[in-house]
Amino acid sequence: MIDEIGHFSLVLALCVAALQSVVPLVGAARRNALLTGWARPAAVLQFVFIATAFFALMHAYAVSDFSLANVAENSNSMKPLLYKITGVWSNHEGSMLLWVFMLSLFGAAVALFGRNLPPGLRARVLAVQAIIGVGFLLFILLTSNPFLRLFPVPADGAGLNPILQDRGLAFHPPCLYLGYVGFSISFCFAIAALIEGRVDPAWARWVRPWTLAAWCALTIGIAMGSWWAYYTLGWGGWWYWDPVENASFMPWLVGTALLHSAIVVEKREALKTWTILLAIITFSLSLLGTFLVRSGVLTSVHAFASDPRRGVFILLLLSFYTGGALALFAWRAPSLVGGGLFAPISREGGLLLNNLLLTTAAATVLIGTLYPLLLDVVAHEKVSVGPPFYAATFKPLMIPLLIAMAVGPMLPWKRGDLAAALARLKFAFLATAVAAVATLWLAGVSSVAAACGLGIAAWLFTATVVEWSERVRLFSEPLSTIVRRAVRLPRAAWGMTFAHAGMAITLAGITGSTAWTVESIVSGKPGQTFPIAGYTIALDAVHDVQGPDYTATRADMRLMRDGRQITEMHPEKRFFPVENGNQTDVAIRTDLLSDVYAVIGDADGKGGYTLRLYYNPLVPWIWLGGAAMALGGLISLSDRRHRVGAPARRARLIAAAEIQPAE
Fold first, then answer.
1. What is the domain count for the chain?
2. Environment class of residue 31 by beta-carbon count within 10 Å: exposed (0-12), middle (13-18) or buried (19+)?
3. pTM, entire model
4. Residue 628 lies in a domain
5. Are the CB atoms for 70 and 158 separated by under 8 Å?
6. Parallel, antiparallel, or unpaired for β 535-546 and 529-532?
7. In the listed set 365, 384, 413, which residue is the last one of a domain according to the structure?
8. Residues forming beta bridges with residue 441, ordered by sequence position
9. Burial readout 520-533 (b: 16 or more C-beta within 10 A, e: otherwise)
């Protein structure tokens, strides 16, 4: 019965979304308050229906209702409850239901918390959101229905892909989807602005918190995904430019540009059409990621679907939403009134440079992702685009970007003095030189690339601290005054400080782990010891253990240094009989400066086992920096100016001019 309620709720959600996509647009065009006001309750009702369907599917997984084909194919009764629940979004049908759930969640949030929005703008935003919802609800009901029945009902399910049975998968996909789908609201604001023909500072202030929320979620999701790849796949790395990894990275890059561009619109009423275009491109890249993962064109541990018909459907949706938005942009963008002028050397100029480098970097990743697919279709040739391509194309774009990140906040709006800004960064220059020279001295002249990376990280981190210290007048005012200024500092300023510092920390982690990782692959027997990067790993025993739904080969190891035991390590190689698959459970010992990483592989038939041992310096900083960036975004999001949006009084005045009561 609950399953039928879930299925019927999806149908009702489609009906509500169809009405929501038309009625508010008509009301806004006719300035009819009754029709315009219908958008808010419709958005909330759509969310209620989709949430009902989503939790109905979750209930089916929790109770192991194998009468649903989706549950039978992706779960079994032996699974721990956590993995039963995460199984909801570990497959194509469930992940698409999560997609529309997040879409309706953002729509309901705009309806409930966007009270300061002019009714006409809010109606158009929610109507565009509903148009997106109609397409994906049709996609689910026609091609990817998670509530299809299975007869005869099997006694047990087929289980879940072993590598997806991980605690991180309880949070990684929802965070990614919050980011992916959250950019739909920025897209909807852009389309609504094009329909109205007006982009002003108030519009930028309204769109920024939604963009920032999506950016924070996507940052967390990407960081968690790289951490999951690091400790689950057992290869010792955290990023391989996998096409599906790129699918989430591209909207993050352009979304970062959008976030900074909206600041220019709010502060200076400049870059209006550029900001609208970025909003369209960001969500279009999110749709492209959805297509890549679910069309069957990619083979990856991340990819879900392999049905070409589903891929064609999503491709049609991508073409309709992106093509329609770009056509509307080409028609309406020239009518948008331009904003204030600014000199190339200015805060606006720095943010524009930031935008150009970020979008060019995203284009580079897009080319590297799509080129093998296009070549396969056109010439039937198989090529692989991997890390060497991105090292040659992506990294050179990041160097000027990271340098500019330090200089930009030092420049005033409208017109600046580059020499004066650089003079304020004397400590950053000093830190850069110290970091680079120290790296070369400690690691040798062969570490020139690492010296450059750590030097740039020191440059950005020190410049961020200098900018913050100038705001609070550190060392130039009494301590009580400094504390008072720090407390009164806008949260958005605190957020920028944390985000930029987090980027510097992540860069240092990437540099260290790339330049100085030590790998040792050995065949070991119990009783042997193995040196790695100044440590010694002793393999004491290997034995079998029984898990809740798996059996495992477990190694008992001791990590030692200078004859002193530091910790015990217990990597496992797990076998899941229901799924007939394996999973690696690595052992990691971290001190936040480096990781010692151990993996046990297959038996060699001679009483030994293949062991993969890694020493990864600075690798924890990658995720510490990612956490700092996300924290910065959340702190900025808590700024009252973002929560309130444009002043309510101004919104009411605009609304009074736009919407007249129905006659």
1. 4
2. middle
3. 0.92
4. no
5. no
6. antiparallel
7. 413
8. none
9. eeeebeeeeebebb
